[in-house]
Specification:
Layout (H helix, E strand, L loop, with lengths): L25 H15 L4 E6 L5 H11 L4 E6 L9 H8 L9 H17 L3 E6 L7 H10 L10 E7 L2 H6 L5 H5 L1 E7 L4 H14 L9 H11 L3 H17 L7 H14 L12 H12 L5
Parallel strand pairs: 1-4, 1-5, 2-3, 3-4
Helix pairs in contact: 1-2, 3-4, 8-9, 9-10, 9-11
C-alpha cells in the first residue's frame, strides 16, 4: 500500500519472522552465536529465552539457514497441549511414519529413526519453539527422548526457545535432571535506544529505502512506546508508515507517532505499553526522565 510511496521494494516491518530482515544487535548476535556453538559442540540441550516479540523465532529461522546438510531438522512451533501430545509432535516434525497405536510403539519407531540417521552420519536436531507452554511432564518426556544419546555419541540435539517462564519451569526440583543437561543457555534482551534506531534504519534499508524515512526523534518516541521489543517496533512503525502515506508525508516525525498512539488508545483494542502522552513536551519529558533520551 505504502511501499511505492516511500520507494520500497517490500514492506519493512512485517510481523512474520523473516531472517532476511534480521538485525543482529550485539545481544542477538551473541544469541545466534550461542545457538551455533551448541550445534557444533554437540550440546544435548540448548535453551534461548526472551520476552514476547524479542526475536527468538527469527533467530531460529536464521539458524536453519546455517545448519549443515548432515543434520536432520525437526521443528515444533505449536506446543499447546490441545493440539496433541509430545510424541505425536516429534514424529510429525521428523516425518517419521508410525503405525503404532500406543506411546511405547511410537517411541520405538522414534528410536529406530534416530539410530538409523546416526548410522548414516547424520544428527537429528529437534527445535521446539514456544517451549514455555510445555508441561512439566512433557519436558521430562523430552529428557527421556534424549536418553538415546550415549556418552560422547550425540544422536539427538534439542533446542528450546521460549518466554522467561520457561526458565522458571526448568528451575523446578522435578526438572533437575533436565536442567543438568543444558549445555547452552542464553536470554535475549530487548533493544536499547540506539539499537532501536539502528533496527528501524536496517529494516528500511533491507526493504529498499534510499533515504531516511523516520527521523531520529521519531525513532526515540518509537523506542519509548515499544521498550525496544522488535515485534512492537514492527507493529508501530508499520502503522506509522500507513499514517504518513495517508497524510502524503515523505518522512515520519514525532507528530505522526503521537497521532497514531492517540488513535490506538481511542480504539480500545491495541493499547500502548506505556501511558499515552498527549503532546511533544510531555513525551520529551518522559524520554528524558525515564530513558535518558534528550529530544532537541
Amino acid at each position: 500500500m505504502y511501499t511505492e510511496h516511500f520507494g520500497l521494494k517490500s514492506k519493512p516491518f512485517n510481523l512474520v519472522p523473516d531472517p532476511s530482515f534480521l538485525y543482529l544487535s550485539p545481544n542477538h548476535k551473541r544469541a545466534l552465536t550461542m545457538l551455533e556453538y551448541g550445534l557444533v559442540s554437540h550440546a544435548g540441550f540448548s535453551v534461548v529465552t526472551g520476552e514476547i516479540g524479542a526475536g527468538k523465532t527469527t533467530l531460529i529461522r536464521a539458524l536453519l539457514k546455517k545448519i549443515d546438510s548432515d543434520c536432520v531438522i525437526g521443528l515444533i512451533n505449536n506446543t499447546h497441549e490441545s493440539f496433541g501430545d509430545l510424541m505425536g509432535w516429534v514424529l510429525d516434525a521428523l516425518d517419521i511414519e508410525s503405525t503404532a497405536t500406543d506411546n511405547a510403539g511410537r517411541y520405538r519407531d522414534y528410536i529406530n529413526f534416530v539410530i538409523d540417521q546416526h548410522a548414516q552420519g547424520r544428527r537429528v536436531v529437534l527445535i521446539i519453539d514456544e517451549a514455555q507452554n510445555l508441561s512439566v511432564n512433557a519436558l521430562e518426556e523430552l529428557r527421556l527422548l534424549s536418553n538415546v544419546n550415549i556418552d560422547s555419541d550425540i544422536f539427538l540435539q534439542l533446542i528450546l526457545t521460549g518466554q522467561p517462564e520457561l526458565i522458571d519451569k526448568l528451575n523446578l526440583p522435578e526438572l533437575k535432571q533436565f536442567a543438568q543437561r543444558i549445555g547452552v543457555e542464553f536470554h535475549l534482551n530487548a533493544l536499547d535506544h540506539e539499537q532501536t534506531q539502528c533496527y528501524i534504519k536496517h529494516r528500511l534499508k533491507m526493504a529498499g529505502a534510499s533515504t531516511a524515512v523516520f527521523t531520529d526523534n521519531a525513532c526515540s518516541v518509537v523506542y519509548c512506546y515499544t521498550e525496544g521489543i522488535p515485534r512492537r517496533i514492527n507493529n508501530l512503525c508499520d502503522f506509522a508508515m500507513v499514517y504518513a502515506f495517508a497524510d502524503g508525508k515523505e518522512s515520519i516525525g514525532v507528530d505522526t507517532i503521537l497521532d497514531l498512539m492517540r488513535d490506538k488508545k481511542s480504539s480500545r483494542i491495541i493499547q500502548p505499553s506505556n501511558e499515552l502522552k498527549e503532546d511533544v513536551e510531555t513525551v520529551r519529558d518522559m524520554l528524558n526522565k525515564k530513558y535518558n533520551v534528550v529530544l532537541p
